[in-house]
Design brief:
Elements (H helix, E strand, L loop, with lengths): L1 E2 L5 E3 L9 H9 L6 E3 L7 H9 L3 E3 L14 H4 L3 H10 L3 H5 L5 H17 L1
Parallel strand pairs: 3-4
Antiparallel strand pairs: 1-2
Helix pairs in contact: 1-2
């Protein structure tokens, strides 16, 4: 999921359970403009950092522990990563989202659109 500064959903993609989030992150960032892109350690990859640099943005991504060359990041900006967690928290207020009762992906996607629209109205 891609969220704005206020924690409102902008884009989302439903992926398979074994699909890694960093692969979807590159698709989300294409066509976007931002001064900074905040992500957690799971998204620490050279390809994603290069994509953010092409956007002329700053990658605020903590380095993984196993990275050979530590890449510094802005600690103050990193504290705003909780906005995406707040976005998921707001979506989980909708029981249908939190438990995913829908068997078909298209039905679940439709409900996520509805829940995201309701979050934007708050």
């Amino acid at each position: 999921m891609l969220a704005d500064t206020l924690g409102r959903p902008l884009r989302f993609q439903i992926t398979a359970g074994q699909f890694h989030d960093s692969k979807a992150a590159a698709d989300f960032l294409k066509g976007q403009r931002a001064k900074a892109a905040l992500a957690d350690k799971a998204h620490d990859s050279n390809d994603l950092r290069a994509l953010i640099a092409d956007m002329k943005g700053e990658a605020v991504i903590p380095s993984k522990r196993n990275r050979k060359v530590f890449i510094p990041h802005d600690e103050a900006a990193c504290k705003h990563r909780n906005q995406i967690e707040r976005c998921f928290g707001r979506l989980k207020h909708f029981r249908r989202f939190a438990t995913r009762y829908d068997r078909r992906t298209i039905h679940f996607t439709g409900f996520v659109h509805l829940a995201a629209a309701m979050i934007w109205l708050r």
